[in-house]
Amino acid sequence: MKRFFAEQTEENFVLFSKEESNHIVRVIRMREGDELIAADGKFDLHCRITEADPMCVRAEILSRTENRANPKADITLYMACSKSDKLELAAQKACELGASAFVPFISKRCVKVPDAKSAEKLAGRLDRIAFEALKQCGRNIPMHTEKPISFRELLSRISETDLVLFAYEAAEESLREAFTEAKGKKIALIVGCEGGFEEKEAEEIVAAGAKQVSLGSRILRAETAAIALMAVASYELGN
Ligand code: SAH
Known about the structure:
The chain has six helices and eleven strands. The chain has a six-stranded parallel sheet, sandwiched between helices. The mean pLDDT is 95. S-adenosyl-L-homocysteine binds next to helix 6.
């Protein structure tokens, strides 16, 4: 059954935003009496459309069930600004794999440092990708996304996080032991851009409290590393 994001949930009915309503009525061509799932951030609401208004669809709630697809762990994936298709692919997969947040950051070897305007556009694209991935994969707690943060801001967020795993291409440390005391903690994962990290950057990330880990003996593409590390973290944390 098709899923849509509810904008307003009352006792026995939901209302949808203009954008979702237009999608329901004009794109998916649903009508009064059709049934759908409304996601409201915690529950999956099995609903029947009572007013198929493309400006504001109204649906009565038939039943509500706890959403089983929502993340159980608190994992933020930080990824250095790479070519936008790589960043967007990693964001989409991070949402499917249960990330709570996806945050791009600037590092020395980022090929293109977005200016204010392109940073806003990137933030909008990431938000849209996260929203579509949310509906596609069946979770209903949105993945938070942001416009790129500075390297300094990354370091300060590391110091506020319980466990930070820094995928560093020059690291020897195994990933295996990294999750031993991770249950229930706020986790951050850090992955570099195509050019990787300067040695000094790696030292600063570790000094801020991150654990550097190797993802194996082969050098992975940035998007591969982001997806692989996110998958391992979710697996290890039962996410
Ligand atoms: N240009 C660099 C590689 C960058 S790969 C070089 O040739 O050495 C992009 C990012 O993916 C890296 O910064 C790192 O975060 C991650 N990554 C790729 N392969 C990795 C590995 N084997 N171990 C740890 N991290 C890896």
